[in-house]
Amino acid sequence: MNYDRSDKVYGYPADITVADLQGAEFLVMDCPPYQKVNVGSPVSIPLLLSHWSETSGLKLRMSVSGRSVDGRPWTEWVPAVERPLEAAPYRVTPQGSFDFTAPNAGGLMRIAGEVFEGDKRVAANYCVVHVTDGECWPGPTQYLVPFPVDSYSDLTFAESCLTRSHHPGKVYGFKSGYIEYQIQLPKDFDSSTIEACRLIAEIGAKADRELVDWPERVNRQDYPQTDGKQWPSDVTLSVAGIEAGVIPIESDFADARGVLSHVAGFHHGSHGTVATIPLEGDVLAAVKSSIGEDKPITLRFEVKPDAAHVGGLALYGASMGRAPLDPALLFTLAAGAGKPTGEAKLINRMSNRFETILQTGPDGHEWRYTTSAPAEGWQNPEFDDGTWAKGKAGFGTAGTPGARMGTEWNTTDIWLRTTVKVPALSEKSLAWLSLHHDEDVEVFVNGAPLLERKRFASDYEQIPLKPEQRNLFQAGKQNVIAVHCHQTSGGQFVDLGLTILARE
C-alpha cells in the first residue's frame, strides 16, 4: 500500500493478492517468471510446496487465465486441473509439474497456481508464458494490417518520446497533441469486398510528474504503480480526416499486467487498455474510398486541448505493455473474397526525417580529446586542439551502467572537442541532445555554455534544446562543441549525441 495507507493495484491474475504470496503455505513455480516459447513447444512448469504448517488435506488448482491476442480464451487449449497435495509439515516438497503444449495462437498465457484448504485459498503464485508465431485472426474473411507504433508520420506533442527517454515499443506525449500514421494498403486490395473494419490498439494516458507522490524528488526510474489516483485522458480517433469517436482512458497504469514493459526494462509495468473501435458509416466509406483510389489511409490519435480530460497519450506496440500486439486495422471481407497478396506499407515516417548530427557510441562520432588539463579558453572555436588524441564516442570504462563504449577513459577528467555543421532550423523544428554522464559534465557550443549536469546518470537522457540554446549554433557553418566530464569514484562515462528534425 501507499504511505497514506491507500491500496495499490498489483494486477496479478486470478485475483492473487500479496497475502497469497506471503502465507505459511507457498507454492513454488520453479521456472522463470516470464518465458517465451514458440507454438507447438512443450511447456513444463515444475512445482514445489513450501508447507510451513501442519495443515492437511490441501489441494492444488492450476489454470490459465486471459486470451490470445485475437481474443480466444486459453482454456480452449489448456483446461484447468486439480489434484491433492501430499506434503510433510515444515518441508519443501516437489509436487510434479504442470505440462501442456503451446497453442497455435499468439499472446501471453498467465499461469496461476492456487492452494486450497477446503474452499479457502491459502496460497497462490503465477508465471507468464509468451507464445510467439501463433495464428492471429486466421479466418478466411479476416485481413489484419498491423503497424509498428514508432512508424508515425507526425507527432505534435510539445513534450514527448522525441524529447524524453524512448523505446521503439511505446510512443507517447504529455498533455495535448496527436500522433498520426499513414498506411498505404496493397494495390490488389479490392475495396468492394470490405464488409467491416475495426481498429485494435493498446492505448494509455501519459502522466508526467502528476502521479508521483514526491514530484520535487526526481528519479529517472519513477513510474508510479497503479493506485487510487487516476489520470484520465480522452483520445479522439480520426480516420481519413473523419472523427470515428472518442476513446476514454482511465489512467496511466503501471502494475503486473504490464509484463512486457517489465521485460523491456522501460517504463516498468506501464500498460494501457486494449481498445477495439469499429469504423462505421462515413468513416468506413472514407476508408474504402482511399483504398479504391490507391491513397494512404491517415489514422490520427489525438488529445485535444479542449477535451474533458487532457491527460496525454501512450500507444503500445508488441514489445511493450500488456499485450504483444501492434496497433492494427482488422478488415472483414465478403465470403469467398481473396485476401490481398501485396504488402501494406507505412509511408512518410517521421523517423526518416531525423538527421543525426552527432552519433552516440559504441561506434560513435570521432572527437578530439585529452585527459590533461588544457589551457584556458579550450572551449572556444579558435583554440588549437591539433595535438589532442582522436577517439570514437562514448568515452569511459567497461561495466559502467548504460555505457556504450567506444574509447577507454579511466582518469579523473576528460576534455572533448569536435566540429559539426547544423542546417537552419525554423521555430517548429526540433533539436535534442542524447547525454550520458558519469559524473559531472559541462557542454559548450562555440565557446558559450549550453548546459551543465551534476552527479551521474545510469543511461542516456534525451534533452530538448530551447530556442535560446539552438541559437548558439550558426546555421550552415562549422560549430565547435566542447565537453568536459569530471569523475571521482566508481564507474565513469560520457557521451553526447545531437539529433534534429527540420520542420517548415
Verbal overview:
Helix content is 4%, strand content 42%. It is mostly beta strands. The chain folds into three domains: 120 residues, Immunoglobulin-like (Sandwich); 207 residues, Galactose-binding domain-like (Jelly Rolls, Sandwich); 148 residues, Jelly Rolls. A hairpin with a 2-residue loop joins strand 30 and strand 31. The chain is globular, with a radius of gyration of 27 Å. The model has no long low-confidence stretch (mean pLDDT 95).
Q: TL;DR?
A:
By secondary structure, the protein is mainly beta. It is built from three helices and 34 strands.
What distinguishing features does this structure have?
mainly beta; globular; 3 helices; 42% strand; Jelly Rolls; six-stranded antiparallel sheet; Immunoglobulin-like; 504 residues; 4% helix
Total count of strands: 34
Q: What is the distance, rounded to the nearest whole angstrom, between the alpha carbons of the first and last residues?
A: 49 Å
Largest sheet: 6 strands, antiparallel
Name the CATH superfamily classification of the largest domain.
Galactose-binding domain-like
Q: Approximately what portion of the residues adopt beta-strand conformation?
A: 35-45%
Overall 3D shape? globular
**Which structural category fits the helices and strands?**
mainly beta
Q: Cα-atom Rg, whole angstroms?
A: 27 Å
CATH fold assignment of the largest domain: Jelly Rolls
Q: What is the share of helical residues?
A: under 10%
Number of domains: 3
Name of the CATH class of the largest domain? Mainly Beta
Number of helices: 3
CATH architecture of the largest domain: Sandwich
